Amino acid sequence: MPQHVIIEPFRVHTVEAIAMPGRDQRENALQRSHYNLFGLHADEVIIDLLTDSGTGAMSTKQWAGMMLGDESYAGSRSFFKFDSVVRDLTGFSEIIPTHQGRAAEKILFSVVANEGDVIPSNTHFDTTRANIEYQGAEARDVVKHEGLDPALIAPFKGDIDLDALRATLADPSINVPLVMCTVTNNSGGGQPVSMANLKGIRALCDEFGVPFFLDACRFAENAWFIKTREDGYADKTPKEIAQEMFSLADGCTMSAKKDGLANIGGFLAVNDSDIAAQCRNILILTEGFPTYGGLAGYDLEAVAQGLVEVLDENYLHYRIRSVEYLGEKVSAAGVPIVKPTGGHAVYLDAKALLPHIAPHEYPAQALAVELYREGGVRGVEIGTLMFGTPQEEGPDLPAQMELVRLAIPRRMYTQSHIDYVAEVVIAVAQRASEIPGYRITEQAPWLRHFTMKLEPLS
Ligand SMILES: *Cc1c(COP(=O)(O)O)cnc(C)c1O
């Protein structure tokens, strides 16, 4: 078999037409949505790389599984299938289904986090950060320094800075209810975390008697990076590696919309039965009975099957390579990106590409808008709009990086779609110096990027 082209390890079974809005339609859509790409109708987008969350294609086996869904309110057969797959994978004893990842976060933090607590992680995802802050606690990012340098090539840029973590844990004035680690580090370029680092976190948590939780959304992609980059793992299966990762933690939050290969779903898993009991009480209040947790029985079936398929080596090989392929194409044309490419997305470095736009004029949003204008490609800003700190007076405090994330939905787009995206990115980069910055005209007090309105600076 020729080894150069890594083919999609599936063939298309059902097709969905792509909308092809023209330039005028795209221009009107930008104005109507106040330059917030979350305000676009999906039919106004040609290639949608807004997120890899819940947007992937399900397999024939997942669709078949959905027909087996048991919709019993309590004790559904589909729950027990889901429960056994999640237990086998994670080793955790208490499995609590939720409708998506943030519901697991909301429940966990309302049980464990109090006013003034500090919760460290490599980089908290936006919903995780917001759920922690909503409890009056601090979400503290302690990613290793190399994780903040987009151009630096290193194998595990998602690793936690263990010295910074130790300093937080050792500070007697700080209460840390748990330590988190996001695998892969979504808001830090989708960079993986090494097994060695997870072991280091475990050791520190043991030393200070603090529980350790994974934000496990992309556990399979992280396992693949460990297999291909970390000594001693080449001969292990992705499943064995994932099991080892989970064995180092006391629990996890999970969005099954990522490596669950499902369109909806998530779970919270813990070993501590007291925490589990408190979490289930809130679950009943907000999500539903513990054997469905806000999901239909058929959703539980889709997630159970997805968690098995995602660990297939052919799938992971293709998945990681297809992201790398887009990164190589735009990078070869001189477009600055976060290197090496992460597991689920290519992150364009807007700070480097648009040095004429100050952080508080949102260079990454400016770039995202141009990608849509140029070719109907929708990405998302991960910069000062999402992670900056608004001030009562004067400009926002900037985020650490100004990135546009082009997230690749799982098993959905083919190589020619990706070639098209590369063409659009390169065309925009060629007129980078003409791109204007933006100012905010309306914003919400948290997670403002979803609903804010903007206008271009002239
Ligand atoms: C998507 C995501 C979440 C939240 O999950 P939802 O299913 O969108 O609520 C949490 N953490 C990370 C790292 C994510 O990527």
Keywords:
about 450 residues; alpha/beta; Aspartate Aminotransferase, domain 1; Aspartate Aminotransferase, domain 2; 2 domains; five-stranded mixed β-sheet; three-stranded antiparallel β-sheet; 16 helices; about 10% strand; binds pyridoxal-5'-phosphate
Topology:
Layout: H1 23-32, E1 47-48, H2 60-67, H3 77-90, E2 94-98, H4 101-112, E3 118-121, H5 126-134, E4 138-141, H6 162-170, E5 179-182, H7 195-208, E6 212-215, H8 219-229, H9 238-247, E7 251-255, E8 266-270, H10 273-286, H11 297-309, H12 313-332, E9 345-349, H13 350-353, H14 363-375, E10 377-378, E11 380-382, H15 384-387, E12 403-407, H16 415-430, E13 438-442, E14 453-456
Parallel strand pairs: 1-10, 3-4, 5-6, 6-7
Antiparallel strand pairs: 2-8, 7-8, 9-12, 11-12, 13-14
Helix pairs in contact: 1-14, 2-11, 3-11, 4-5, 4-10, 6-7, 8-9, 12-16, 14-16
The structure holds pyridoxal-5'-phosphate (PLP).
